[in-house]
Amino acid sequence: MIRVLPELLSPETVLQAQQLLAGLAESDWADGRDSAGSQARQVKTNLQLPHEHPAAVQIRSWVLAGLDQSAGFFSAALPLKVFTPRVNRYTPEFPHYGLHIDNAIRLRADGERVRTDLSCTVFLNDPDAYDGGELVAQDHETSHRVKLPAGHAVLYPGNTLHEVTPVTRGQRLACFFWVESMVRSDEQRRLLFDLDMNLLQLREQLGETAETTALTGLYHNLLRQWART
């Protein structure tokens, strides 16, 4: 289940993030391979801000605030834990992250482990600022190519084979993180999301009825049965 989260960050917040990143020196950026597993290190060539860099801390706070306010994120992810968001950068000199699957378990800076049920990328600059840099993710037999406006995010299963295609002009700026869901199964999350979205549409069309109340009860009973808290 690949979901786009439009305007996770407001245009004003995106502009602030872009100004913050534009003021950094090249020496502020670290080799992205430092956070990769053994397989991913072989195909990863990008840059990242160190975990405690002030710009990374500030952008992280904006992203986490956006997640807290996003009903779409909660419905699609049913989050239990969020891995500390990181900021990365692709340029023609550091252009590409080849095909890989993310590590199943990530260790946060606070020592807590996060199972990577879902991966998320928040785009921090617009598609016309760079050539290439598409996120390509496999969903069963379908290959999705994702390159979104600044402030938009894409959420996809952590077990997805994916890559970032080479950047040949400009720079691609993004924030990325992983989510451990209360509902481990992607298929169960998909069913709950579809039920939730259809309930919203029924309420818009019909208001609150006996049927929507019953379906809401079904949603919560399924969530109660499948969720781990």
Describe this structure in words.
The strands form 4 sheets. Strands 1, 2, 4, 5, 6, 10, 14 and 17 form an 8-stranded antiparallel beta sheet that branches. This protein has helices spanning 11-22, 38-41, 54-68, 71-77, 186-206, 210-226; strands at 3-5, 30-31, 44-45, 47-48, 79-82, 86-90, 96-100, 105-107, 113-115, 118-123, 130-131, 135-139, 142-146, 153-157, 162-164, 169-170, 172-181. Helix 1 (11-22) packs antiparallel against helix 3 (54-68) and helix 5 (186-206) runs antiparallel to helix 6 (210-226). It is an alpha+beta fold. A hairpin with a 2-residue loop joins strand 12 (135-139) and strand 13 (142-146). The model has no long low-confidence stretch (mean pLDDT 96). The longest helix is centred in the last third of the chain and has 21 residues, at 186-206.
